[in-house]
Amino acid sequence: MRSKKNKTKKKSAAPAYLSKGILDITRSGMGFVILENKQQDILVRPNDFNTALHGDTVRVEITSSSAKSGRLLGRVAEVVERKQTEFLGRVEMNASFAFFMAESEKPMPDIFIPLSKLNGAGNNDRVIVRITRWEANKKPEGEIIEVVTREDSNGMAMKEILLENGFPVFFPKVVLEAADQLEEAIDESELSGRKDFLNTLTFTIDPVDAKDFDDALSFRLIREGLYEIGVHIADVSHYIQPDSVLDKEAYDRATSVYLPDRVNPMLPERISNELCSLRPHEDKRCFSVVFEINGKGEIKQYWLGKTLIHSDRRFSYEEVQEIIEKSEGPLSGEILMLNDMAQRMRKQRIRKGAINFSSTEVRFQLDEKGKPLGVVIKENKEAHQLIEEFMLLANKTVAEHISKIKIHKKPIPFPYRVHDMPDKEKLLPFVEFAKKYGHVFDMKTPQKIAESFNQMLKDVQGKPEQHVLEQLGIRTMAKAIYTTENIGHYGLGFESYCHFTSPIRRYPDVLVHRILGECLTGSAETDQKMEIKCKHCSQRERSAMESERAAGKYKQVEFLGDFLGDEFDGVISGVASFGFWVETLEHKCEGLVSLNSLLEYDDFRLLEGEYCLVGKRSGRKFRMGDKVRIRVISANLSKRQLDYEWVLTPDSGASVRPVAKKQKK
Asked: CATH classification of 564-652 is 1.10.10.60, yes or no?
């Protein structure tokens, strides 16, 4: 009887455990599923991909393991999320059908294109294709959404970068149709559910070339020394209903991507640039945080809710900065008062532990074809800080408000924006390096670390080591992410923080608006998938940053490609065992000085703790932050790579001289 029971148990064994991870396909065609929070990956052979492509998030079933190597083998059971659905490549045609072959380093199957879906493409044309259908054990099917012309090489390079990072470059027809059907007119029935700010002084402050104005400020004197300041944010959630085609498209993208010559938007222009853009002299729906603030910048009380606003004027940052500097101009009294409040709040925030890292933003001047003509360095001035402080205040206030709400005695799942405390293991080498420049860190508490950072950033202003210490300091910091676990935002010094102020370009802000709206009406429900949504949005944000870096690098290479052989002053921005990177002072363009190009001077070795390369014979050091002279020797657009060579100058050091070459006898 016992043996029968044992046999029965074996027959009814539980199904294989499915692990979730990202499929990495090598050039040889083999796949490896990289599991979340696990060191060991799972080998998947091409026949077991089950329609998965490189970069897709999948669930994998373990089928066997190698006794010799311990390697786990598996098959893809399910594609959870596609990294990419649009691809660049060429189309081949015959009389009855066509096939698309992707231009990709990673192997992928050809895509079948019905003749009715060619969209004007001819044989051997370079095209962008979208996968429309893919059944198991069959070829994927697709449609051509654009034929690429030779004239648009810049546009194609930007689109290729977006596609590589999983961002579609076109909205599906059904999404555009849904956006076009949205009503702009404000119905009278809405007036009872929205607070009326139509006659309150309201204005926007944005970049001079902005088209989507998603935030506005209102200003009203309540009584002497007390002001009502409204932070009004476009009510995107009014138009984007949960689980609609617009919502699904916005969630998949999760963010707008800002490249040097274009924006790849999260939402169709009908929504971002028309319905939701807080353009002057138009009535608009908003979600608002309204503060009562005294002249010292102290918050006396706040109100949250939906509003109707009418922007009286649109300002650029440059216009507001001029008003601040000259103390005159349109609405100068209101702007100067807001700026005084913002500067007070900024100083108070830094006193409470916010780290005052400053970053230099570089923008290329482009011609009509997107070719870079020059570089503009954008400074973070008081006009920018004015908007920044009120947006931070609104985001913090919303997060604090939601953090106090419970459903069934539990915190409501909410997409907090969090920033973890520094990892001491990463921080210690930096602290030792900073000590060489006379900067001492107090490591007793996170608060003391933040104070030490701020003191260093203040002391280093204008000194040669400023660049290196700022850059290395930023690298020691954790990356901010979205999560339901509210651990606070270390860099800002906030116990609770979220993103509420940019729903036109960030999906987490749309989620925040929905949850806040439900909480205010008492209809909030628990979303068990909120953490999954947070992880997706964090991943999309990282992909957007990678796209922006790649596009910026492309423009750098394109720009300096016209200066081959020319010399420039630069600063060492990074070191590695194979060379060091230099950023030109004039253009902020980064290139590599290879170790091979230095062999005629010395045999250089990397000292990791010193962030430098040191010569074995001469002792000459190339350290992060050192100023050097370089020559541009190569600009490879396809690899987005600049190569420099170090130029020996009179002040480079007498000990470093080219090694005399032995003459052959």
From this structure: no
